[in-house]
Protein 1
Amino acid sequence: MFVVKNGYPNALSYSWQQGSDEQVLEQKEKFLTATNNLHATADNVNKLKRGFEMKCEKSYGSDTAALEKLMSCISGFSDVTSDFREGLKRAEQTLCKAAVFPKIHPVIAEFASSSHIITEDQLYMLEVEDPWLQEIVKVVDEVIVPLKQLLHQSIYDSVLKISITEMTEYLEKLALTCSYNQLGGLLLDKRLRSLVTFLSGITQWSIRDKFARLTQICLILSVERLSEVEEYTSSSAKCCLSITEIKQCLRLRNDFKKDDINNIVCD
């Protein structure tokens, strides 16, 4: 717990990026070990609590007053378990901020530096080979996937969830700062589908709900006519976007008139 509370995240973040000398490797190993130990300790304390409860019920089941007193004492184990689990959550967040976010943010940020008003030839070329998407896959493979061998499965799953949530929120933020034509919207939709497919391959749970908002943003950005938006919103029972957000997305299209966008009706 001491290593997690005081280890750091600034010093950890700095050291994690500095290479693989002996001191850095030792610091990483200590932090990962402490994180795994938090999970194991919380689990063991919880098992100990259940064991005491079962033994007390068996030994003092007929003595209600004594059993209540014992159970009251044993309940304190729940607070201990909660403390360790809170420490584990902090450790997972610290690990992501130190090891994952500094690597994945610059790659995703490249999205905003390129034009999304593209030609059919450009769309075809990027469908064949997309350097931006390839770089994201590379960073995930090099930074996140190796943690699977170093962390308890549930901790690794949590790190994945935190990282994927950060990726989707950051990409959404960037996507809403760019301008598009229909082909640019279609490219974003294709990129998102490829990213979901890749990330689904390294997780043991469905990640599509994490991409629900981005998926609908892509759909709005790739429509051919504004009437398609009205048809979609009237038929979709699971629209994650408000009317204001839908119109915000449509205003990113360079080929739609603002007056026409303001006049659409989304039920």
Note: The two ends are 52 Å apart (CA to CA).
Protein 2
Amino acid sequence: LGDLRTFSLLRNQQADSDAPSPSHSHSERPTVREVQGEVPLTDLAVTPLGDGGFSVSYRPGGMGEVAIEVSLKGVEVTGSPFRLRVGPAEADPPNCTVELGGALAEAVVRVGLVSSVEVRSFDVFGNERTAGGDTFEAWLLSPGADGSAERKVLALEEMGDGSYTCAFSMAAPGAHELHVHLDGQPISDSPYLIDVAAGADAPAVEPPLPEGSPADAPAGADGFAQVALEPQPPVNAVPAATAAGESASVAAAPADEDLL
């Protein structure tokens, strides 16, 4: 689409062997027109050649199928009408687009999560290309350990339908730049600025309880922990030992009286 196309009409030299040298008059010029399809022919020109033939140039004004009729003195030339299919023009960097997916489609982009990129190719007229062969380049600028930017080249996979994809992840938090170029020129909206946050917070870990705590005791039939309490000496017991050289006496309360 949009390219200037040219073809030649040559005289049959054997048929004209007995004829005088060809001269080009206006009436001898061929008629060229589109007879089928919806693709207009623009910049149509018919130029005489020195050998009695003609050069025909035209520019397709749209995409699709078209049939071109060529006639000379009201008679169609051999092979007319000529049928051709017009496809998109070459990819145009300002019209090409990028679709961000994976982690890049989330509200917050985090370190280590897989991101994806799909580059789509369009021509200068805005038509989406349906074949590959374009030379896209992509790279990621990330903050380095020393504060400088580190460049990571991204390998774009050609899908054969005019799209190119790749997957990657960011290794450090901070401001990143995604660059996509075609033939050395940035495509639409490139570079893409990406703010990357640190990875997801680790789950909180509760400190361990001391040994012998109720949480370590086995549960009983009623669901409550069974805790064995250490026996305590009775209040009227006499200590088994005293300080050296001293005697100790503890007034024991009468068995039949209440303790104060």
Note: Residues 30 and 181 are 45 Å apart (CA to CA).
Protein 3
Amino acid sequence: LCVPHLSIHPLFSRLESASKVTLFRLSNTAISRKMLAAGDSLFLSGEMATHMYVCIEGRLRYIKTQKQSEGEGKRMEAIGSYVKNSGPLQRVVLPATEWVDSHEDWIAEPILWTPAWRHLGQTISHMKSELLLVDAEKFSEVILLNPQAMQLAHTYAKNFLVWLNTMDPLLRSDISQGEIISKMLERFMDMELDDGETMEEAMSKATTNRSLTMVMDNNQQQQI
């Protein structure tokens, strides 16, 4: 029952054909469900992540806090805002908003591939919502059982972490907008790039799209 919902993520979609037994084991041991009422918080900024989340019903709002601690007139590329002051900039805090839509986006994927991940923002349910929770520790245990799944996950994780570590920290987020990055994530499993395109160019393209999306979301929010 979990497979159709998880298949929005390219890796889980590929596992469906590469190792169905792995998906079966994940469904039985590593995946659970969580219901949220409108206004409920899923997690707060600064908390340690334990799960990756897939929204299967409803909608959630993610609010990330951007911080600058020095300099003058700094531009916040991630949210399209300018910081102006007449003296030294001591601390500026600006919110960036993203929306998590059902059957499209997922949350906190880095916890599957890193020893620890601290949430960069707060996620609040915009309406009654249902989530699939992928337990990070149990996910790792199950993946390691099957050689095909392990090889696929190893290749994906290696490229995912290169992408994450080369990203501008201001653009990092707990949210994965599936419609923006899914094609790039598919390449992480087999390195099939467009003609003449390098991995760095693919990463840059996905990062630019995330920046533009965050700008548009914040402009719409300010109009509301």
Note: DSSP finds seven helices and eleven strands in the chain.
